[in-house]
Amino acid sequence: TSGLPTLTPSPIAWTIAGSDSGGGAGIQADLKVMSAFGVHGCSVITALTAQNTLGVQAVEPVSTSMLRAQLDALAADLPPAVIKIGMLGGLETCTLVAEFLQTVEAPVVLDPVLKSTSGTDLLNPAAIDILIREIFPRVTVLTPNLPETELLTGHAIESVEEAADEILAMGVESVLIKGGHAEGDECCDFWSAGGTCCWLTSPRIETRHTHGTGCILSAAIASAIALGQDTMEAVQTAKSFMNDCLLNPANVGAGHGAMMIKP
Ligand code: PLP
User: Fold this and answer.
1) Mean pLDDT over each residue of the chain, to the nearest integer
2) Which among 217, 74, 215, 70 has a CA at the least distance from the CA of 225?
3) Which ipTM score applies to this complex?
4) In testing the pocket of ligand 1, which one of 116, 118, 146 has its CB within 8 Å of the most ligand atoms?
5) What are residue 47's DSSP bridge partners?
6) pTM over 0.90
7) CATH classification of 12-246, choosing from 3.40.190.10, 3.40.50.300, 2.120.10.30, 3.40.1190.20?
8) What are the residue boundaries of the Pyridoxamine kinase/Phosphomethylpyrimidine kinase domain, all occurrences included (predicted)?
């Protein structure tokens, strides 16, 4: 009633990801989502990208020493309730983040960002092995889309449930296989933690403004976990949050534009 801000500390979420100069994906989307959830977002920038709604024009990794400095700065003062990981970019970044994750306890949501829609590599293909061997065992929720699922399992998907089992066998605690790239008037995602699993189905939203959907979904899962939801509840909350974003394009740029991210 005094109008003064609350003195209760907000839960802290970190995003370890790439910058999108166009403001639709990456760090920029993650921080907007965290803010919409009422979570304090901190960022560890792995790479800069020069991009707009038409595509990615340039990518430059952040130096290993600067990456380390960002992680150390946050670890010393802003302990995370959850960590979201997006674009990692290169081999060194992957190795350093893998080592760092051994030193923190928070749950990890990993969006295995491999390529942009426009075809630019956002992870050096040589780093995929490190991602699987050294980061997957620390992951609470992995969020591959269908092409990423095929790349990770090494073959075309025959059954989504079987693909989920194969990915779980790589050491992640749970996996959300996102069905947005499939045909059909419903978008069907499958979440599995092995013993427990569920299908998440919603009507397909026809829009060209899909840039950043993967980032928004994984940042929303992370935010919901930071607020105390269990993993299955968090993926459900995040899917409905992301669908609301898809219904609210920012209508900027000539290409695959960004979405408005509202509480
Ligand atoms: N740029 C950055 C920094 C990202 O993290 C991502 C996806 O995670 C993208 C671009 C790709 O976005 P899209 O494939 O939606 O264009």
Assistant:
1) 95
2) 217
3) 0.92
4) 116
5) 18, 61
6) yes
7) 3.40.1190.20
8) 20-259
